[in-house]
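User: Quick one: structure for sequence A, then sequence B.

Assistant: Sequence A:
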Amino acid sequence: MKVAFTSLILSGLSSLTAASAFSDFLDADHVIRSTTCEEIAAKVSSESVVYYNGSTQYEKDNYHWSSSSSQASECSFEPATAQDIGTALQILGKTRTPFAIKSGGHTTNPGFSSTSGVQIAMYSFSDVVYDADAKTATVGTGLAWDDVYTALEEYGVTVVGAKTTGLGVGGVTLGGGYSFLGNQYGLAVDNVVAYELVLPNGTVTNITSSTNSDLFFGLRGGINNFGIVTRVTLKTHPQSQIWGGTLLYSQDQSEAVNSAIANFCSNASDPKASLYHTYNYFAGVAEMFIILFYDAPTYPDGIFDDFLAISHTDQGVSTRPYSSIVKSVPLNSPIGYRSVFYTMAVEEFTVPVLDMMANETLFWGAELANSSALVISYDVEPFLPDLYDHTDTPSAYPPSRSQGYSFITIYYGWTNSSYDDTMVDAVYKSVKYMTQVLTDANQNIANVAVYPNGAPPNMPLENMYGDNLPRLRAIKNAVDPDNVMGLTGGWKF
């Protein structure tokens, strides 16, 4: 057991009761301490540590990429073993203390991985174990995908995870996971072989499709409703160097760029080819950039010629490691803004659809300028129609696999918390407008399930999980009858 505030180690608190859990006290150094935090520190092993405000690690544990997601917790807890997580969950459930689980800390919805109670930070679960015979890698949920990809490069393999830098293993493997490799291998959840799960009652178990088909179904897209995942075993895939990088375009090239994107999306059927394009309105300046990706050291003639022929600024397009292309996707910048995302489905990126996205970027960039908005971004993420065909095992998300979709991802970043509702309302208004435009263009996307990891606050569960929701609620009630996981944030069944 360890409690860290100037490295002070405390003990002898095992007699605390649930009745005292909500009380705080001042220690000899006049630091306010939570009795729940102290009980956790007293009962876990010496490898796990509780931190208080005033320590550098406490600040790191509570930090989130988006300032709208950060809170000051009563303490932070860095467990080193799954068994210690189980001990903490038993105490949190007994005392009914709010808590949060942080993997990468990249969620933007307030309270989803932050809390005023006990902040659990998964940093100690940072192992990457490659099994060449099984063709799997087991990775800790305290890692960012950047580190996972880099660790596996020496073996010439990779796994399906996030496509942007800084995202944590936990959120992606529990929420869905769209990536540059999706057209070849499906979503991240489609590539999960097993989860090491700490159940709400403290029991540590290994969940696979054969050991517990219900929980395996629920964990793959059902976020954190069923316990705390410490490690994930994923299928590995051969990975050579890839070709790709970023091209920057000026606003006067929008017509040519939109035409090139539409042509690529309607004609490119090679699952190794992908792109990620964004229309940005940054501090009053409109800009565009595109990341081109091909999963081989060189790309086939013709597939990206339209983009390269347009006047641009080259930002390192080359043959490179897979990890380096992920690190180049600048979703992690700027850091510290208040933020909201909304990911909506689209069947086809035509020129009119792309023009609509560019116009929405400019309209809301100007409309929200006086509401402290600094970044307005509309992103193009195309996928092939067979995106969801890479597994026969059903998952919580997506609730239907009858058709694969491409996506528009919207991001707003601002600084003043008094405009939080204004920004979220604006995102909903923009999506409502674009949904109508797409529907009028005979794109059947109005009722497509919303991606849980790309859904803004207040999204109804039915809109994400559809007909799967009754089964998910039944699984939740079976494994968590005392609703321990209801003490943490996220989409709650």
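Sequence B:
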Amino acid sequence: MQKSGFFGDDRNGAAQLLPMFPDIEPAAISATLHSCDGDLDRTIQALLDGNFPPIATGEPQTFSSLTIQQKRKREPSPKASTSNESCQSPKHFPIFTNPQGTSFSSKKKPTQKRSAIPPVVLTPSNLSDHLPCEITLDFLPQELATSLVTLMLTESKSFPIPRYFIFEREVTSPHRSQLYTEDIESAHFYQGRRSDQRQSPTLMIQAARDIEDHVNARLAEHLTHPDTWKWGPARTFEVRPGDWKSNVVVANLYSTAENAVGPHSDALTMLGPRPVIASLTLGATRPFRFRKVPLPSDTQTFTYDVNLPHNSLCIMFPPCQEQYRHSVPKVKSTQVKPHPLCGPARINLTFRMARKPPENVPKCHCGRPAEMRTVQRDDTSENYGKYFWSCTGGAEGDDEVGRLSDDQARTSTGPVVRCKFFKWEELDYKDVMVGEP
């Protein structure tokens, strides 16, 4: 059982849950985590199903105000088939017909009761039947893959632990991460803070060029042969075939089976809407998990697991970041296939194209770079699929964060504050016609 929570010394659960459920009050998330005895998987399912304890009104919503009587017993979910044939993934995603939509509203509508089913195990050959993704095995030449994993084992020894401000506390993620860029002078931001970045080494750049050629070829294939790609047409603001270039790499280290990262989608602030992300696995083989963002009309929510071996390339095409959450779940040691050089350690290099120059990212009322998000939980809304900017939140007294040094930005431990900044991103939501270059 994966224990984690807002209480005690382990706050990793809070760090993973808050980004996944931005529309649910933090007090409700912490209450659900408590009622599930810190079991992160049970908490996620309870929140998706709407089975979280009621929060009393009329008094401050704090964890200490919750009582044991507010726990709600979870009813056992009916067993369902986990065969691949039983998973009816949507063939197309909605077409945006109202780009001039009215003001955004966060009011939630009642949703149908969703039943949970165990993760469906996919393979590289059938992954694209269920997800807007593709996997290529043995992608890099063996000599390059071996040299790169050897280099990253040395580099990863000094990777920092990601830190976030959640529920007025600083929390850490149970893995290590580092951003690399070919242009060391460029600025990249995450959660309103300037990222600590390193110069991409030569071997990483060499791998990036091979990955760029492959990604652009696959983009061209999907655009010109829609009969073999069922995940909906491209949008006019997406990267066109031949234009995708990896200029940023996020490296993640999972040293043991205990290391993990919770369900999330990659931040759109620097990548822009509907990005393409290519993920190269080096080292140990372990499950990689996808979960569809539930919609009010969904009666079931699907979770998919796929094992990613050493030197495999997983491309996440649009609209993967908008429609799905991905994670590296905590597993038993028997579920990890060691690598001769890495043992149980898995190193993941995610090659990305940063399309939004820092100077074009709007500032919120706090003075921080805002965060790009999308309306994704209500497909009945006229604003469904639209993108907007909002405050990322940060520590009180951190008004200059983003313009401070990394060391200064990490020293603040005040309570989290979030302003009411909101701005729609102006985009042309038309589809790209088949055959257009």
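The chain has eight helices and 23 strands. Residues 1-10, 55-109, 395-414 have pLDDT under 50 and may be disordered.

User: Thanks, that's what I needed.
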